[in-house]
């Protein structure tokens, strides 16, 4: 064997471990991670009750009624695995992350004085990180090393001697090849172990199963010399500045971080990247006193970062947190700068707008300038939202859903930020309300859209306007499944002066929500 | 940025065509939110940036129906006492600005903003008191259609708009809102006839 030996580290059930850590589930609880109504992974407690990968939700629940189901999230799994990679990278550079939970590297046996010793050093380091269940396999090729790791004990390693791959693989079930179509066919042909499969001649396999089958055959023979696609450790782009003596005024900090922000932006720019999300942290005497993630609509320039530091520290207010000793910038998201490059002639106005907005933000604060967005909802106020300039809208309700109970267009021109108390009465002067079945108790004859405090004191003598026309009610029962839910009925009312209002009846009281001004 | 000289008129919402033609550097006053949004919608629908200062109860859906491009709109709902500085900063970067002054504007501030407006070739739409304006749009009468006593729903309205500009003749027209039909110009008449005095 000419190539270098391969070491595989395997953390079993990584999707479950990651999901349980996020949901803060006690480790003994039977848990499964679901991907599209199928069990994608489960832990030992669930496996003991008979839950298996690929099971449907209701089958899994029938085997184990107390099974906790958590959604799969590949991004989170990969993110949680990143500390494991960093930990191994510190011991031996050049790791290849195969998938979350599985990592391969060229075996650093010579440095650590033997293959089991190398695995033991890595295991000790991972246990130090809180990863209790890690298993190691060392072999000539990647596939054999992975199978060896699957057979190893917890925190232990299994070593396949050089040249012994074929002998190690021979008794294994052919289904470990992880290609259900081919392995099902092989099993129906009576080929049940990798040894049976590898004893076939390459020519026959190629003729019957094509190139994909030949690749599996090479794996089964233990001769696959796939090169590991190792990654280089990510560059350290974190910038920080220490103040000696500590600075207590926000202005002084904002002034002093200027050089650091320029260096931060420059070193990211040298890699043809731009930073779109940054974590700004301020420390005073060893404790992090202020930490916030900022998102930029385009990307951060040095002056933008200085502004963010200023806003973040001034928002801290007068709380006595002590003078600032350190400010740190950590890039949370970087993107290639070609994505954001200005056109040869275009988008000059967008950067100009940004400068104007930055001036207003410097005057009034970060959240003073907002971008209007539309979303789904029943009341006019729920159908719109404001997003601070520079942040991305999150958690908007989809507009394409039907939203029963919403008012047909045209939309009102004014949507009051806080509804006005109002009154609607019938011809006899009795208050009109809406019954539980969504019917009006009387015909609206007179109304007043805005009762101020002085009028409500002498409500009887308030001059009411005549109703010229009205439509509705549109009943909407919002969050009826929760306690304290209210039934709202909305009415369009046009006064004799021609002005139209959208009024809402909640219980016995009327409110003016919007004006068709 | 160029200053002075002849400038192209700004795109104006079709529902207001003939009643008012917007020009860069001019200011317009109206008390109706819908008319103000229609004035903003003209340049905004053509891809210009728009800003709204001091307006916290804007119906965004109605603005979008009238043609305002919300992706190129900035809102400063609560500028507080710094509203004049905010308007000055945003006039540099936007083509049309809707302002509801939170406090009464003094003559000095107004003339400074007007100078900035002319220099930056932007248009200003004011809801509220404003001493100098090129045109004042007054919503005189309106009639909603589409609803009756308990049936239907609001569909559109016919609005009688009077446009007063300085000492020029007053123009009246019937506008359909929301809509893109050209208005029906009713009559033009001089606001006050000269009389022999003394």
Low-confidence stretches of chain B: 1-5
Major beta-sheet overview of chain B: 9 strands, mixed
Number of helices of chain A: 17
Residues in helix, % of chain B: 10-25%
Structure classification of chain A: alpha+beta
Which strand order does the major sheet of chain A show? 15-16-17-18-19-20
Mean pLDDT of chain A: 84
N/C terminus separation of chain B: 50 Å
Kindly report the greatest chain-chain contact and the residue count on each side: A-B, 48 and 50 residues
Shape of chain B: globular
The SSE order of chain B reads: EHEHEHEHEEEEE
- Mind summarizing the main beta sheet of chain A? 6 strands, antiparallel, barrel
Classify the oligomer: heterodimer
Itemize the secondary structure elements and their pairings.
The complex is a heterodimer of chains A (517) and B (198).
Chain A: E1 6-10, H1 14-23, E2 31-35, E3 38-42, H2 44-48, H3 57-63, E4 68-71, H4 74-91, E5 95-99, E6 102-106, H5 109-112, H6 115-128, E7 135-139, H7 142-151, E8 157-159, H8 165-169, H9 180-188, H10 194-198, H11 202-220, E9 239-247, H12 250-256, H13 258-269, E10 273-284, E11 287-295, H14 302-315, E12 324-336, H15 337-340, H16 348-364, E13 370-374, E14 384-388, E15 414-425, E16 446-448, H17 453-457, E17 465-477, E18 487-495, E19 500-506, E20 509-516
Parallel strand pairs in A: 2-4, 7-8
Antiparallel strand pairs in A: 1-6, 1-7, 2-3, 5-6, 9-12, 10-11, 10-12, 13-14, 15-16, 15-20, 16-17, 17-18, 18-19, 19-20
Helix pairs in contact in A: 1-4, 4-6, 12-14, 13-14
Chain B: E1 27-30, H1 33-45, E2 50-53, H2 60-66, E3 73-76, H3 83-91, E4 96-99, H4 107-120, E5 123-126, E6 135-147, E7 152-164, E8 169-177, E9 184-190
Parallel strand pairs in B: 1-5, 1-6, 2-3, 2-4, 4-5
Antiparallel strand pairs in B: 6-7, 7-8, 8-9
Helix pairs in contact in B: 1-2, 3-4
């Amino acid at each position: 064997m000419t190539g270098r030996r391969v070491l595989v580290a395997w953390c079993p059930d990584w999707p479950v471990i990651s999901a349980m850590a996020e949901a803060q589930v006690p480790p003994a609880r039977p848990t499964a991670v679901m991907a599209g109504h199928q069990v994608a992974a489960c832990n030992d407690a669930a496996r003991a009750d008979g839950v298996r990968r690929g099971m449907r939700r209701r089958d899994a629940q029938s085997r184990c009624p107390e099974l906790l189901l958590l959604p799969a999230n590949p991004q989170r799994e990969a993110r949680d695995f990143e500390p494991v990679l960093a930990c191994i990278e510190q011991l031996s550079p050049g790791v290849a992350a195969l998938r979350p939970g599985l990592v391969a590297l060229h075996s650093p046996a010579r440095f650590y004085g033997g293959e089991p010793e190398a695995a033991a050093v890595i295991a000790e380091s991972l246990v130090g990180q809180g990863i209790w269940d890690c298993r190691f396999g060392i072999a000539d090729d990647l596939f054999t090393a992975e199978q060896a790791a699957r057979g190893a004990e917890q925190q232990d390693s299994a070593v396949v001697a050089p040249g012994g791959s074929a002998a190690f693989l021979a008794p294994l079930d052919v289904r470990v090849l992880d290609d259900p179509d081919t392995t099902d066919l092989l099993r129906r042909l009576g080929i049940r172990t990798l040894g049976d499969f590898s004893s076939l001649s390459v020519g026959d396999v190629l003729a019957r199963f094509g190139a994909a089958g030949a690749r599996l055959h090479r794996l089964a023979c233990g001769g696959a010399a796939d090169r590991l696609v190792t990654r280089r450790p990510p560059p350290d782009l974190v910038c920080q500045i220490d103040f000696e003596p500590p600075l207590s005024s926000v202005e002084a900090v904002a002034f002093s971080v200027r050089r650091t922000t320029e260096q931060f932006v420059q070193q990211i720019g040298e890699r043809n990247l731009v930073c779109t999300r940054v974590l700004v942290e301020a420390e005073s005497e060893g404790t992090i006193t202020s930490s916030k993630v900022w998102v930029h609509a385009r990307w951060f320039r040095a002056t933008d970062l200085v502004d963010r530091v200023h806003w973040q520290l001034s928002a801290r207010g007068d709380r006595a947190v002590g003078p600032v000793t350190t400010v740190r910038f950590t890039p949370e998201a970087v993107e290639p700068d070609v994505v954001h490059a200005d056109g040869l002639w275009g988008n000059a106005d967008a950067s100009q707008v940004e400068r104007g907005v930055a001036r207003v933000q410097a005057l009034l604060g970060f959240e003073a300038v907002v971008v209007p967005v539309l979303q789904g909802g029943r009341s006019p106020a729920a159908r719109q939202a404001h997003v601070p300039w520079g942040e991305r809208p999150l958690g908007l309700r989809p507009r394409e859903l039907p939203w029963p109970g919403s008012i047909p267009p045209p939309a009102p021109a004014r949507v009051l930020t806080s509804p006005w108390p109002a009154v609607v009465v019938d011809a006899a002067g009795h208050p009109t309300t809406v019954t539980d079945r969504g019917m009006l108790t009387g015909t609206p004859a007179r109304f007043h859209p805005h009762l101020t405090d002085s009028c409500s004191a002498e409500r009887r003598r308030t001059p009411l306007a005549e109703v010229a026309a009205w439509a509705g009610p549109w009943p909407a029962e919002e969050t009826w499944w929760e306690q304290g839910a209210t039934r709202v009925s909305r009415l369009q009312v046009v006064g004799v002066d021609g002005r139209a209002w959208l009024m809402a009846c909640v219980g016995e009281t009327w409110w003016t929500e919007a004006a068709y001004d | 940025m160029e200053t002075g000289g002849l400038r192209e008129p700004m795109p104006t919402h079709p529902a207001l065509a003939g009643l008012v033609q917007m020009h860069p550097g001019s200011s317009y006053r109206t008390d109706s939110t819908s008319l103000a949004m229609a004035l903003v919608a003209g340049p905004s629908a053509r891809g210009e940036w728009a800003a709204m200062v001091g307006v916290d109860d804007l119906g965004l859906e109605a603005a979008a129906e009238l043609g305002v491009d919300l992706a190129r709109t900035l809102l400063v709902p609560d500028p507080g006492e710094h509203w004049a500085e905010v308007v000055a900063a945003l006039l540099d970067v936007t083509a049309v600005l809707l302002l509801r002054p939170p406090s009464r504007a003094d003559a000095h501030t107004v003339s400074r903003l007007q100078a900035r407006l002319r220099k930056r070739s932007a248009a200003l739409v004011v809801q509220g008191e404003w001493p100098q304006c090129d045109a004042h749009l007054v919503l005189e009468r309106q009639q909603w259609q589409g609803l009756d006593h308990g049936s239907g729903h609001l569909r559109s309205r016919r609005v009688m708009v009077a446009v007063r500009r300085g000492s020029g003749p007053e123009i009246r027209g019937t506008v359909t809102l929301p809509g893109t039909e050209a208005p029906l110009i009713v009559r033009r008449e001089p606001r006050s006839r000269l009389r022999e005095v003394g």
